[in-house]
Amino acid sequence: MGAVIERARKFRAEVLRGDPSAFGATEIWENLHNSLHRKAIAEVDDEMAFIELMTANNAFTYPRLIDEPLFQPVVDRYLAYFEKQGAPLGSYPAQIEESGLVSKRSSTTISGRHVSTMFLHHLSMMQRISSLTTGLRKVVEIGGGYGGLARVMRLFNPKQTYIIVDLLDSLYCSYVFLSTHYPDARIVFVTKAEQASEIEGADFVFIPTQFFDILQGCSLDLVVNTASFGEMLQRDVDAYMHFINTGSNTRYFYSVNRFARFDPNMSLPDQAHTTVKLSADWEILYWDAFGARSFHQLDPCHPPQLELLAKRLPVEERLTKLQELAAALLAEHARNLTPGSSDWHYCMWEAVRLFPAKALITQYIEGASPEGFRDAAYYRELMSSSHPTGPKYASGVDLTPQVPSAPEPQRRRWFGGLLKA
Q: Of 354, 358, 257, 352, whose CA–CA distance to 302 is shortest?
């Protein structure tokens, strides 16, 4: 038996001897665990064989196998997306590639770099996170899958403490993958609440949901959840969102999860209906639903999703940010109204009142002047003390009209927990 598997089974057994978790599994996950994960946990004694099985068959990130007709088209879409973002894959250091431990059934070498659709998906997430956040020293991922995103995050942040919270048998998978990949890392697998003090300074921390409470009140730089909240029980999603909103001091929150358009073939009755419930304490730094401007629908295996990155604002900043957002929305709406009309004046008058900015004032004066705008004298005086730019949306919010995309073919669907092409 491999040493990593032996440790993983030991930790799992210790947790199972204690109290059961308050968090449960939906039917979709029970079916998957029974058909694949628990069977592998019980029967596969070698960590390399375990990782081979997981990364060729897992449903954590729906890997495309290299012999599938859509493998190369999906890879090409990701590569084109990276080019469009100004960060082509070839611009990264050579070590930014898929792990050599991942199954050769789902990975290959393209232009001298080892890739899989899973890796490209995780790298897209990392690009988004790194472009809009700073100082990510302590990260919590809720539902870490087999550990693919954690590995990519570590490639960019080698001194980061990365904490994965998950149901025990899913956590077993990420522990085996990351422990095998990083044999010299400082790793903590929590089997009792007293281990909370061991988190500081660790490279990776694995926390079964039985011990989720040890994170209450922690200061965290980022909490991540991807393709997971949408497949949980609603009560568990709500518990995690309560932790993110009020149970911790979290600076950033990143989510890519099912949203709004639910295919009955991919949604069983006990799955959560609402995956993100953010309080008013947050500024939205990035928003994209249904892949209009993002990467998360490049592979049609993914259901309609919302990608969201938010930053918690100090109390003193919240009102200013909300005023700026309201002014930007009012000015945008005014562009669709008749200049000089009562509704147009309301939008521009209120926008300038909420967020006096040179660009807004200029827009107001120029739009109203043909009607003999005597009030312009006041606004020209206001110009001298107004904001030099703005109002603006966050850099990750784009409300310009988009051309609807054509329906995607060959979407993978869940049927009773079995993934079919």
A: 257
DSSP string, 299-329: STTSPSEEEEEEEEPPHHHHHHHHHHHHHHH
The Cβ-side half-sphere exposure at 387, using a 13 Å CA radius, reads 17
Looking at residues 187-191, what average pLDDT do you find?
98
To 5 degrees, how large is the angle CA 133–CA 253–CA 27? 140
Joined together, the tokens standing for residue 403 give: 């051309």
Q: Given 3-state DSSP classes, what are the helix, strand and coil percentages for the chain, each rounded to the nearest 5?
A: 45, 15, 40
Global pTM reads 0.92
The reported pLDDT for the residue numbered 302 is: 87
Q: Tally the C-alpha atoms within 13 A of residue 304's C-alpha that lie toward its C-beta.
A: 13
The residue whose two tokens read 């550990």 is: 147
What is the rounded CA–CA span in Å between residue 3 and residue 211?
Answer: 25
How far is Cα 304 from Cα 406, in angstroms, rounded to an integer?
Answer: 14
Contacts of 44 by beta carbon, 8 Å cutoff, 6+ apart: 5, 50, 53
Question: End-to-end distance of the chain based on CA atoms, in angstroms?
Answer: 34
Q: Which helix (H) or strand (E) holds 282?
A: strand 282-289
Type of residue found at 175:
Y
- The tokens describing 186, both together, are 């400082």
Please tell me the predicted confidence (pLDDT) of residue 413: 38
* pLDDT at residue 409, as a whole number: 45
Residue 260 has what pLDDT?
86
pLDDT digits over 201-243, tens only?
A: 999 999 999 999 999 999 999 999 999 999 899 999 999 999 9
Cis omega (within 30 of 0) on the bond before 391? yes
| Contact present, 289 and 131 (Cβ < 8 Å) | no
Give me the chain's average pLDDT, please. 91
